[in-house]
Structures are given as structure tokens and as C-alpha cells.
Design brief:
Helices cover 54% and strands 0% of the residues. The chain is built from ten helices and no strands. It has helices spanning 2-7, 12-15, 38-45, 55-58, 65-75, 82-87, 106-112, 114-126, 136-139, 148-184. The structure holds zinc ion.
């Protein structure tokens, strides 16, 4: 038994009683040390699923975690858009602030909008990127001959571009709101 516990890298002293007359005590098996912790409990009870392909892209070491967290909200559609408001029953007309040709939803704002396509064209030319940037999956593709540094710069550019487009959308929304407020006065 001791060999099995040692093979599992568990703390032998913390798992087996040396003397049978010692009092019993609880051992937390999910942790290899046998000790209970919030971290090991969380890992035990959380649901695990396959890692999405954009996970390592947005949580790159070259991206500030605050930016990564914001982009995660964008990807998960966790930010306030008119399309999201419609999805929960709010009745309103959704319109892209940049082109007025599409609806106000994240995928359109970041990738489909004609304004966004013009914005993505600039880094594609600078990086000599032949890949399309019609969505995040396409934008994550890198050229085979790019060095690790260029790949990191491209990752930073894509994530930064997504945030810039979202912030531009918010600025336009605020500006329109202010204009409407002035007109109503
Ligand atoms: Zn647009």
C-alpha cells in the first residue's frame, strides 16, 4: 500500500497512520498531498471540456490579461449590444454605428462591417498576410514563414484591433446619444 501511495506522489506521512492507536483524520484524495484546498476543490467540481482554439490566442503572454478578459467577453457575446438586447426581448431597431448597413452585433462589428474590413486591411498589408480576416478563426491563422516574434506581433495586432473596433463602436454610440439629447433639448 505504501508503494502505491508513493507512486501516486502522495505524502506518506500525511496519508497513513504510523500508529493504529492514533486518532483518524480526513484525507482529501483529489489533491496529491492529501490536503484540502479551495484550488483542488474547484478543479474537482468544475466541468471540464475541450479547450477552444482561440483560448491560447487571446490568453497569450504578449496580451495584457485585462485586454484578454475584455476580448473574452466579446467572443462570448457578453457585452451590451442591441442584438443582445433584442435576444432578451427588448424591442428596438438594431443598427451598426459605423456603416448603417448591418445590425449591432459583435461578429458584424468586428469582422463583417465594411469599416472593420478597411481597418483589417492595414495590418494585413503591413504583415504581408495572405489570409482572410473575415472572422476570428481566419484572423488567427498565421503565415508559415513568420518568425515567433512576428506571430506574437500579429496576435497582439488582432486582439488590439478587436478591442479598438469595439471601443470605436462604443464611442459612436455615446456620441449619437449625446447628439440625440441635444436635439431633444
Ligand atoms: Zn458597420
Amino acid at each position: 500500500m505504501a508503494k502505491i501511495i508513493e507512486a501516486a506522489r502522495m505524502d506518506l506521512n500525511n496519508t497513513l497512520k504510523v500508529d493504529d492507536e492514533d486518532d483518524d483524520y480526513m484525507v482529501w484524495c483529489p489533491d496529491h498531498n492529501g490536503t484540502f484546498s479551495v484550488n483542488s476543490t474547484f478543479n474537482e467540481v468544475r466541468g471540464r471540456s475541450n479547450e477552444v482554439e482561440w483560448c491560447s490566442f487571446i490568453w497569450s503572454s504578449v496580451i495584457h490579461p485585462k485586454v484578454s478578459a475584455s476580448v473574452l467577453k466579446l467572443i462570448r457575446n457578453g457585452l451590451a449590444t442591441e442584438a443582445r438586447a433584442q435576444s432578451i426581448g427588448v424591442s428596438l431597431a438594431s443598427c451598426c454605428r459605423a456603416c448603417y448597413n448591418g445590425e449591432d452585433y459583435v461578429t458584424y462589428i468586428l469582422w463583417k462591417c465594411s469599416f472593420a474590413q478597411v481597418i483589417w486591411q492595414w495590418p494585413r498589408q503591413k504583415f504581408k498576410c495572405t489570409k482572410s480576416t473575415g472572422n476570428l478563426k481566419q484572423a488567427m491563422r498565421v503565415e508559415k514563414d513568420w518568425s515567433p516574434l512576428i506571430k506574437q506581433m500579429w496576435t497582439s495586432t488582432v486582439v488590439g484591433g478587436m478591442m479598438a473596433l469595439w471601443q470605436q463602436r462604443n464611442s459612436m454610440t455615446l456620441l449619437i446619444h449625446k447628439l440625440l439629447t441635444v436635439i431633444n433639448l
